[in-house]
What we know:
Helix content: 40-55%
CATH superfamily: Aldolase class I
Strand content: 5-15%
Shape: globular
Low-confidence stretches: none
Number of strands: 8
Distance between the termini: 18 Å
CATH class: Alpha Beta
Bound molecules: 2-phosphoglycolic acid
Number of helices: 12
CATH topology: TIM Barrel
Order of helices and strands: EHEHEHEHHEHHHEHHEHEH
Structural class: alpha/beta
Amino acid sequence: MRTPIIAGNWKMNKTIDEAIQLVNDIKNNLKEEVEVVVCVPFTALNEVKKIISGTKLKLGAQNMHWEESGAFTGEISPLMLKEIGVDYVIIGHSERRQYFNETDETVNKKIKSALKHNIIPIVCVGEALEQREDNIEKEVVKSQVLKAFEDISAEDMVKIVIAYEPIWAIGTGKTATKEEANDMISFIRTTIMDKYDRGVSDKVRIQYGGSVKPNNITEIMNQSDIDGALVGGASLKPEEFIKLISF
Ligand code: PGA
């Protein structure tokens, strides 16, 4: 049985004060059966960690460098995240791939480094609209998956969370249909099975992301292969996110 996992990706939103307020609202509305993660800006990690300690709410970062330290101005290292007590880190979000030159190679390095430091990566994959229109979306996603998990052991692979986020559905209000989402996610699971084995692919949790809202969460979560959601916009409003996590 895979435990459902819903993660809020706050992106570049919320000051420390705003973060404290939002997390206070969320932490009192958790459910036993669903793992909930808030991926907050770096500046708010420490304060949020203090507030959620003793609750089941998990803490995530939105990116990290793969090196432990060094001359990388403006970057944050896995040791720094670990010191705060971060549980998860989003790796390879499409916005980082698009605007900050994240590549399959850097994604792979970051995944390895996160695992080495016991931080669970939430690895994002997903095709652009033109790629879907050209009917190459599966090829694209398969290549992202295989490159991301190059040289990752089966033992590590089962810990990883994958988020399938079609780029055309992010922040657009345009969700993939539940069939499109489930079809791609079961394709990702098959790709993992072919690379490892059934034991591994049965354990890996795969989320859907892209305009997940209170009105579509239930149909998304009811799909056979979808284990959760990575939520942007709707994770910023307490009433919406609380509805999502109690789907
Ligand atoms: P959205 O963002 O829910 O606002 O579409 C999802 C994401 O980028 O993770």
